[in-house]
Amino acid sequence: MSKNVIWKSLKKLANLNVAIFVLLMIIFCCILGSIIEQDKSFSYYQFNYPNYYLLIIVLGLDHVFRTWWFILISIIFILSLLVCTFSTQLPSLKNARRWKFVYKKSVFNTNQYYLNNIDDYDYSFTNIIYSLIRLNFFVFSKNNSLYSYKGLYGRIAPVFVHLSITAILLGSVCSFLLSFVVQEIVPIGEVFHLKNIIHSGFYSYLPSDMIFRVNDFYINYNLNGSIQQFFSSLSVYFHNYQLLSSKIISVNKPLRFFSVTFYQTDWQVDAVRINVGESYFVQKKLVKTDINGKNCWLSSISLDRTGKIFFVIFNLDDHLLVCNSEGVILQEVDVGEKFYINNSSFIIKDIITSTGLQVKVDPGIFVVYFGFFIMILSTFISYSSYSQVWIYSSVESLEFCGSTNRAALFFEQDIIYLDKMYSYYLVHINEQTITIYNILI
């Protein structure tokens, strides 16, 4: 009794009007998530939405797709699709496979098509069956009645559509519960753990037994000096010693192992290491600025109480410019090259750069991709027409009726071919019968 009550309650979700209403709510939430920037700081919303920032924060509009109410709406829509699939689509598919023999014309409520040469005293069930089989129909016979169909796969398409949407929404829910996103800015040669968490699901966890190292970072430049691509060499270690994976990554070419993915997102120039004299080392921070519209990095070092020299870097593959306090270029030097200023020796030992990485674990993304694959597959399957043909014997002829759910012109063409093949077989078999009869006589 309780199962019947629960099933009747769930079947209300399969109502078309309810499903459309829930789908419109999901669309509205997606529009909100597209209009309002997601996952920004509180000050960002306070500055850009001074009249509505409190409403945005309280309702969770700054992270629409990770709110409890969006997950609840998605679950309701998933239930609606599943109930509709099991209560309507699958029984309809099962019913489409049943043999439907008829023996009178009043049974038909569909569009009817007729054959020209079937009204004949010499009609043959064998010929009509063979003609239908040649047109790729599945044929069943019982008591002078034929039933045939083709294109049953077209009836599966609605089931596939429901399953694909369900998979996409379930993948989104899995991403909400199990995924996490970490962003790090790591200097070359440094070992790091995952700690700068941007987003984490309720049931996500960080792999604490893994450490990561940035082996190298470099940039490829175009001939005009613009950046073509930048690369990072990464290594992943287990318990500090076992190398799990190593790869040079770039934009759109991440490092993937197990469920963890490393994306190359950004980079920056941090500092320059300088050897002054024989044994004195100094590390100076580089400040990003622009000169004549070109990005560059600038640092300075004091020679005495009144004088300074400046180091200017335009790109990592070019020379460093050494300038005085008036901006006059004194020298162009390379990394590792020794040069002298005021009888003091200098060597640029290294330019320290950092790479920007985004580390992401999202087990739901494979479910989402699988859902879209099923949806694409169902699109192709839906082009298959489901056609049915009924033929039964009357007093002096065969009665024919056919129907199709789409592509009526192609179905009419099949009927024309059926008529021609049936006529061809009928005429030739009659001729052969007469010939054999004459020979016997």
Automatic annotation (TrEMBL):
Domain ResB-like: 17-279, 352-414
Keyword Oxidoreductase: no
GO BP: cytochrome complex assembly
The entry's keywords: Chloroplast, Cytochrome c-type biogenesis, Membrane, Plastid, Thylakoid, Transmembrane, Transmembrane helix
Pfam families: ResB
Membrane topology, as annotated: Multi-pass membrane protein
Alphabetized InterPro entries for the sequence: Cyt_c_bgen_Ccs1/CcsB/ResB (IPR023494), ResB-like_domain (IPR007816)
Subcellular location: Membrane; Plastid, Chloroplast thylakoid membrane
Family indicated by similarity: Belongs to the Ccs1/CcsB family.
Assembly with partners or alone: May interact with CcsA.
Name by which UniProt lists this protein: Cytochrome c biogenesis protein Ccs1
